[in-house]
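Now for a sample.
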Amino acid sequence: MSLSCIQQCTICFVNLDGNNGYIRHIRQVHGNDRQFATFCSLCHSKFVFTNLKSFISHFRKHMLDFSFNEEALSSLCTTHDTVNLNIHDDIEEHLTVYEYEQYDQLEEIKKFYVKMLLKIREGHVLPGSVMKTIALSVSSLIETFSIHLLCKLNINVDHPISRNINDDIEKILFEISKNEDSFISSCELYFKFIKPKEIQLPTGNKAYYIPIRDVLMNLFKKKDFYDCIKKEKQYISQFDGQDILYHYRNAEIGRQHLILNVKENSLLLQLYCDDIGIVNPLMGKNTTHKLTTFYFSIDDLPACHNSSLNFIHLLLLFYTKDFEDENNRRILFNQLNKDLRCLEDDGLVLPRDINSTYFTISTVCADNLAGSFSNKVVIKKRIDSHELGGFTCAFNSGRCCRYCLIYHRDMKHVYKESDSLMRTAASHDSHAKHIHNVSNDKSLYGVNEKSVLSTLPSFNPITCLPPDIMHDILEGIMPKFTNCLLHTIVSNRLCTSSQICHRINNFIYGINDRRNRPPAFKEKEILDKRVPSKTMEKYCLFLNLSFILIDIIDKILYWFLYKLLRQIWDILYSDYPRKSWFSTLEQLIQEFIQLFQTIFPGQFIPKCHFLLHAARNTAKNGPLKRQMNLRYESKHHLLKKIANRCNNFINLPRTISRRAQLRQCYDLMDDKCLKSGGISGRFRSR
């Protein structure tokens, strides 16, 4: 027996039969790992290999070196120890043969094939019908390979053993790929697939809920995931009582949170709600399917991992029109409410733990505005924070701010937060109770009804609905100001509209900005004061304005407003905001809003007023960057891609929820779910 013989896998730590068995195991079991990473046990180097081929090549070179050295040593002397080692080899060989006889190779083939299907189907978001094609191709490949191998070994091709093995493998492949249900059953067996629960609604439609307890248990079975959260909690605790606000736990509401104060071993969940529109390509835009999604993520995960879409999990999916009925709302949130209350009261006994870990809601993120609005009419488009909180959804009249009781007509003239009466949890509960008794007084407080989420434990619309700086600033104030600034440059004749378009369209963006460069600008868009682009494209343009207009900055009359807005954004988007900054931030915001309203009086929007409360909301909720909707909305892209690739619009929530859970299987099928070295995205060398 070789003294350098490997007896255990360096990735999953299962017992193995020597170096050849190790190589075979690495190829068969870990060959499809999305995050392959291991070191070589035959050398002293601790270099981590992330490529399977390079690792096997390196390992075989060491095997050859060791075998040569052992042959030279054995030719020189044969000792009593060598005889004992040979005897031990024989015993070990018999044990290995026995274990091999007890081991079901077909079961391993099943698991490997299901893993391969997950990698191909869900990794590339292919339609389910591709499984039969894969099964047929793999079966033909195995048959061709076995015929070629038997010919090389001078064995009869029609040998019954070979024929039986091929038949068994073909049967396994087609049994798994027979239909969607058989594939899902295999995923449940090998990769802990969590089946969405169907909720039958009185309207006849169906909603689908993914049990949050099961998802959490699957996540915390990954040792690296749980260890990462424990380290992050320790890191967060370092900022308690400090000037830096690193996390929700360090902010005012987090410090006063009942569950966090009573139960030390507790973790935070962040919920998110939004609507998505999916168009049937055969029917056109008139048949857009409007769906409402609820996601959740673990708020105690480090930001480098929390930004990954793998850790944003689907929770609830239903048709938006079903949300309008009060009875439907009660049914939709019934199971979620029970599970969240159970997680808060009883907790979960996580793997490798003795005591229960409790889970509670920190915040519920959503869009601030209901939809498009004008001076005369409001067009309701989507479920938002105001509707979830029970506030008014009209933003052109009445008390349309969910942070204070100011009227819409007074927003343009109030530049200090202290000049408006703030809403509190107690006052809001009183207003909701009054509206319940006197429904005609809705406009009196800007409250339409009791929050639809009020049945959820630890939820209050005042404390649990933070602002979203993506919609308020990146999609609101920033593009509005950019439009006004570009229009001012043209009206002051510093540049023509065609010259500005040429500057923007021909500007060479940096490596990190190329993916988000704005689309080609047209003269009409500058004259109409609008920026037709996506959120990150608007943000990219705003950040690069100082470079695009570098030769005329000194001549731009209102460039100081750009500097003010940049200062405000840098503080709000900070990972480590300080409490000592808030007084400065408040002054900057007051100055910006007053100057913006004075210089561009016709361009004021309610989001400008919402910005007044940003300093106070940061002190209450912690860094607003962590409450942003940007990464959650990126998850919509996956759901839309699933719907379009599957091309099945009969029961869309069922199709999407099942495929989303299969994608979760794909994301969590490895022993470790975090990328090695904390890498959560693509990096480019400069």
Summary: Strands lie at 38-39, 48-49, 197-200, 206-209, 266-279, 288-298, 313-319, 358-365, 371-373, 378-380. The radius of gyration is 31 Å. Residues 439 and 448 are 8 Å apart (CA to CA).
